[in-house]
Amino acid sequence: MRTVQGILSKLYTENNLTKDNMIWLLENMDKKGKELLFDYARKTRNRCYGDRVFMRGLIEFSNICSRNCIYCGIRASNKNVARYRLTKDEILDCCKEGYDLGYRTFVLQGGEDGWYTADRVADIVSSIKELFPKVAVTLSLGERSYHDYRLWYETGADRYLLRHETASRQLYERLHPDGDFDNRRECLFSLKEIGYQVGAGFMVGLPGQSVYNLVEDIYFLKELNADMIGIGPFIPAQNTPLGKEGGGKVEDVLVMLALVRLMLPLTLLPATTAMGTLDPKGREKALKAGGNVVMPNLSPIATKSKYQLYDNKICTGDESAHCRVCIENRINSIGMKVDMGRGDSLVHLN
Ligand code: 5AD
Ligand code: FES
């Protein structure tokens, strides 16, 4: 007979599960089962990475986007957004401030903005590498050509974040009117092939998303062998087609985080800003469910409030130095420690 406990202990020791068992687990999990799941996830995280949380400095360099993802606040059709683009010097200033605060990973994230040509991005990456030796550079600017990805890798970029968003073709096509499901997957496999540490990930609580869809997400991540996995709740954004829908639940995200930790023990798992937005203790809860990365914002204070993928995003009025301390206190409050090192993925190193 199947029991929640039995399936969880199998998952804990084998780091694998049949799809059928995972669905059964999700449909039958009670409060006690969740506690056991989080406990196993924490132990697995501690065994692989210890009790440290890696810090990444996030620089949101452009909110200009040519795409129209129906959940996203900065989609091209949203005319209510004050658009901006950071210059190379402004990006380097953010890095300087971050470097002085101790950050050794910079994540450059932006919309799909054609102004940042392959050469412009390559120039920015090589300047960061030159000015701040030994830092890791992570890029996150959407779907680009194999040629662009390779050029940036050769210029020194170490990692690339491109959430797959959902592994269900049908749901993907509904959410991305101008998207191409196959191309997005191809991008992820190309990035791996080129040599990047690759981050994928998905949202939880999207309108029309089923438990089966979420199980598909986890199996896709396993197939990709993702180095990092960003999981957050869907949060409605005003002036978007999904602006009046219900959002995802913190509890449901925690279950996904813990399952992912057990299925991919060596992956890096951020406690996302979206979790902190839905629940004042959301990021702490995510770390207690197996997470081990946080990505505080290093963008200039003048632009922080303009990068609103969803409503009520936290920290948009806070100085980078303030978040640096705030996050450290939060991490310490749950008995974990900040790690300011590069924090490379063990998936990649193994
Ligand atoms: N709610 C939650 N997450 C969102 N993202 C975009 N819009 C939203 C939203 N409304 C996520 C996407 C994207 C990442 C940068 O932010 O998953 O890949
Ligand atoms: Fe920004 Fe707490 S992390 S204010």
Key words describing this protein structure:
TIM Barrel, alpha/beta, 6-stranded parallel sheet, globular, single chain, 9 strands, binds FE2/S2 (inorganic) cluster, 3-stranded parallel sheet, 350 residues, 15 helices
Short recap of the structure:
This protein has 350 residues and is of the alpha/beta class. It has helices at residues 4-14, 19-28, 31-49, 88-100, 118-131, 146-155, 169-175, 181-194, 211-224, 250-263, 273-278, 282-288, 301-304, 320-333, 346-349, and strands at 52-55, 57-62, 105-110, 136-140, 159-161, 197-204, 228-233, 293-294, 337-339. Helices cover 46% and strands 12% of the residues.
Task: Describe this protein's structure.
The chain is an alpha/beta fold. The chain has a single domain, classed as TIM Barrel, CATH 3.20.20.70. The chain is 46% helix and 12% strand. The chain is built from 15 helices and nine strands. The strands form two sheets. The chain has a six-stranded parallel beta sheet with strand order 2-3-4-5-6-7. It has a three-stranded parallel beta sheet with strand order 8-1-9. Strand 4, helix 6 and strand 5 form a beta-alpha-beta unit. Bound molecules: 5'-deoxyadenosine (5AD) and FE2/S2 (inorganic) cluster. The site of FE2/S2 (inorganic) cluster (FES) has 7 residues, from helix 14.
